[in-house]
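Hey, sorry to bother you again with one of my protein questions. I've been staring at a protein lately and its backbone has me curious. I owe you a coffee for this, so here goes:
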Amino acid sequence: MAHAEQHLRGFLRDLLNEGVEAGQVRGDVSPDELAGYCLHALAGAGGLTSKAAAKRLVTVTIAGLRPQD
C-alpha cells in the first residue's frame, strides 16, 4: 500500500508541477506539499454521507490550488 501511495503522490506532484509551470496552480507552495495536501484533504471524502458534501470538499480542495492574486 505504501508503494501505491508514493506512486500516486509522485504522479499528482508531477501534474501539479505542470500546472504551476502553466500558471494554473499556485507556485508559492511546492508541488510535493500540494500533492500531500490534496491526498489528505480528499481522504476525508470516504467518510462523507452525500455526493453534495463530496463535491464541496473537491471544490474547496481545488480552490486551495489556485494561484493567489
